Amino acid sequence: MSTAPRVLREPWQELSRQRQGATFGIWVFLASEALFFGSLLLLYTVDRISHPQAFIMAGRETDIWYGTINTAVLMTSSLTMAVASQAAEADMRRLTIWCLSATVALGMIFLVLKGFEYAEDFDKHLWPGINFALKDPAAQLFFSLYWTLTGVHAIHLTIGLGLIGRLIIMGGRRRIQLRENPQVEVTALYWHLVDVIWIILYPLIYLMGRS
């Protein structure tokens, strides 16, 4: 039996057109997100060129262990998300749900570790302001960008967890058909964007002054 009636939504009349529309829509959205993060990265670049020594000094204060472990966690979650997407196409519901659940678990681990890292940063007075720990005023630029970039990334990751969680609940209760469902592909693309952004942030934040 065709799965199209359980997947097809208005106003689409063909499943292939619906998937093309969903894929095109998410790529437009991802492009807008790339522009948003690109503007922040451009600001980072300008400040880095203007204050090279301050950025090197500030970068050495970041916790490379938290950053490295979280990078490994996110890369693993990208793998489980890719497997989930392929399993959904093969109509392997149980494997799809398990891989989606593993992706959520890894994302939660990332946020918990990030929370511990933030707490450590507060204890070290690395929050820009009057009691900032580093003497060079320009170092506050680095940590302003650090909090902004990692904070916005964490928000995007949390949104991704919500989207994946919805797929797990709806798919587990068989309220939606996972095979040929554009929601799976769209969610996977969004999650991979979150991972790619972190890959860019990792060397800029945690390897600064350590290379």
Write structural notes for this entry.
- By secondary structure, the protein is mainly alpha-helical.
- It has one domain (about 35-205): Cytochrome c oxidase, subunit III, four-helix bundle (Four Helix Bundle (Hemerythrin (Met), subunit A)), CATH 1.20.120.80.
- The protein contains 7 helices and no strands.
- Helix 2 (about 15-50) runs antiparallel to helix 6 and helix 5 (about 95-125) runs antiparallel to helix 6.
- The longest helix is centred in the N-terminal third of the chain and has 36 residues, at about 15-50.
- The radius of gyration is 20 Å and the shape is elongated.
- The N and C termini lie far apart (about 60 Å).
- Mean pLDDT is about 85; it is low at about 1-5.
Arithmetic mean pLDDT: 86
CATH class: Mainly Alpha
Task: Estimate the helix proportion, in percent.
Answer: over 70%
CATH superfamily: Cytochrome c oxidase, subunit III, four-helix bundle
Which secondary-structure class do the elements indicate? mainly alpha
Question: In percent, how much strand structure appears in the residues?
Answer: under 5%
Radius of gyration: 20 Å
The total tally of domains equals 1
Q: Main beta sheet, described?
A: none
Order of helices and strands: HHHHHHH
Span from first to last CA? Answer: 58 Å
Which fold does the CATH topology refer to?
A: Four Helix Bundle (Hemerythrin (Met), subunit A)
**Tally of DSSP helical segments:** 7
Q: List low-pLDDT spans.
A: 1-5
